[in-house]
Amino acid sequence: MKSMVPNTLAVFIALFLASVNAGPATSQEVAPAPKAQAAKPEKQLIEIKIGYLRAYEPQLALSVLDIAPRDEGVAGANVALNDNNTTGSFLGQKFVLDVTEVKPDADVVAVFNEMVAKGDRYLLADISAQQLLSIADIARDHGVLIFNVGSTDDILREEECRVNVFHTAPTRTMLADGLAQYLIWKQWPKWALIYGSHEKDKLFAEALRRAATRFGGQIVAEKEFKDTGTARRTDSGVVQIQRQMPVFTQDLPDHDVLLVADESEVFGTYVPFRTWIPRPVAGTAGLIPSGWHPASEQWGGSQIQNRFAKYAGRRMLSKDMAAWTAARILGDAATRTQGADPAKIEAFIRADDFSIAAFKGQKLTFRKWNWQLRQPIFLGDGRSVVTTSPQEGFLHQVSELDTLGVDQPETKCHFK
Amino acid sequence: MGRRLALLAATLAAGCAASPAWAYMVYVSNEKDNTMSVVDSTTMEVVKTVNVGQRPRGITISHDGKFVYLCASDDDTIEVIDTATLEIVDTLPSGPDPELFVLSPDGKKLYVANEDDNLVTVIDVATKKVLAEVPVGVEPEGMGISPDGKVMVNTSETTNMAHFIDTESHEIVNNVLVDSRPRFAEFKPDGSEVWVSAEIGGTVSIIDNASREVTHKITFEIPGLRAESIQPVGIRITADGKKAYVALGPANRVAVVNAETYEVEKYVLVGQRVWQLAFTPDQKTIISTNGISNDITFIDVATDEPTQSVTVGALPWGVVVSPN
């Protein structure tokens, strides 16, 4: 798949360049021309460089099935680049991805400056909020557009929003709202919440509390599960968990659903089927909200899934989809503006009528007040898609997708 | 054909005021349950359900009405069904994941969109040989052919182009940008225009076949429905070139468009997720497939009123009507 592109590219380009915008008169002259003659390149390829900055370190998960693939996100960007280059072959555009990897706590300013020096005008960022904020203003001064494909931190779209940072990853509040709408639709409004002791666990717990308030859920009790630093996997650990988890959930008052907020992978996976009373689990375990689901085949989804699986040798995950979408946004902007002029590309993306198709059943648009991409939220159990939110009946005067996450009237984003 | 026409003439001459007992067979591919429903257009009843390959979608019929061709997408093949026996009698080498196709006006060649491989495959129906594979944009889908058979149009859903392919040389001669996720391409019967629907863009682009430029874009507005739920897919244009029908997907309606002024004149409520359309040969009726409702709707072309819905298999996708 990968190697097919360069091999056929020369032929593609020559053939199609000769024909793009040609009228039928010309086309009749072009069509019968022998291939050898047509294969002479007539126009220089325009190169569009996209940088990809990624904080990565191998990380364990409670289940070995949940360990993030080595190329999570990057593979999605690469598939989008292949797509962009197929289209680009008709228009004389070539997209190049420039991937830089750093440690999760690294200082990214220096590496970012190097990427800018290499000519990256667009940056897909899969780094922490803190890392992103350390380069956002430098990027602005260099005219670089950043696409956040990894961080779900609401703060990047709210208090710390930046006019040059677009977000294709959903926020925690969007994810929590998507889940809450479904639980309300199911008429399971009484929730108990257990959350981890790390910062990101607490942020997701907060998003769930906010969702309860918004959609009429009731959190009847909360409990923190402290990370005592135990090994994630031990040979006999399962025996202990089977005894520990019922006890931990024993004192919760009755509820319809047990919500879990454990982004840190300390206990969440161990909750389903081990609770004191038999209740469904949702949140970071059980029924999980996400920006994409590896089993989604609706809305043409099987096509991107097949394309992705063929390229990456694995299923497509949410981060892959966020990166694919960001790279496709740039590809589509280059196609429609028929060039590589960064000012035109940016104007196209910021235009009122901009939208992108991403296998989610409807066009996706940006919230112009903070440049967050509106998108449906998938709810799945790890094997299959259970539903997608917004749910039927959650109405909105602008877009039903704005029932998910922080809406314009409540936003704390004010671009300077 | 001749004999039947004579019969019809006789019936009409006899002054039969009731709707003529003129049974066309309507063939519907049911994407979900791997069947093809055969519906009698007069009694509006399912006369047979045929088990076919996996994920049947695109469906068409030979000009003599003897064979139905059906894309069994997940079996990577095209099945040939004898309309007399309703048995699968043959398969054609479609290339991977065939979704939609179009038969050349002379009935000799099938042009197939291979979604997964960014290819259009050209098949010789008689010899079952692949004549050519034409590289196109990402996710090829819609397939239209000019009435003279000289040019075919393929739409690519992620590249968002209509690719005009010379059917002699099998090379692309023009690429025309259209709106997001172009699904279907339909030539006007006089060959002057190609209509291309864009599912996510929510529009139908009119491409002038002489200049190969978009000359007009049709948009749709339905009170009480959000723009996002209006997703144009299948298109059919009447033989006189005056009226067009556009299936609007989850908007659950078929738009009736004045094909001369491009004004939308009416929205016909049919069923959930309207996908494809087909006329009966007399063009008195147009039939829509309504995927989520598991039915098809007969619309009267004179009044543009829905006359009857018929339950078929699970997720009806494509529809074709016998020519005789």
UniProtKB/TrEMBL annotation, chain A:
GO terms for biological process: amino acid transport. Gene3D superfamilies: 3.40.50.2300. Residues 1-22 form the signal peptide. It comes from Mesorhizobium zhangyense. This is ABC transporter substrate-binding protein. Belongs to the leucine-binding protein family. The keyword Repeat does not apply. CDD domains: PBP1_ABC_transporter_LIVBP-like. Pfam families: Peripla_BP_6. It comes from the Bacteria. Keywords: Amino-acid transport, Signal, Transport. The keyword Cell inner membrane does not apply.
From TrEMBL, chain B:
It comes from the Bacteria. Residues 77-143 form the YNCE-like beta-propeller domain. Residues 1-23 form the signal peptide. The keyword Signal applies. Keywords: Signal. InterPro entries: Host-pathogen_enzymatic-act, N2O_reductase_N, PQQ_b_propeller, WD40/YVTN_repeat-like_dom_sf, YNCE-like_beta-prop, YVTN_b-propeller_repeat. This is YVTN family beta-propeller repeat protein. It comes from Mesorhizobium zhangyense.
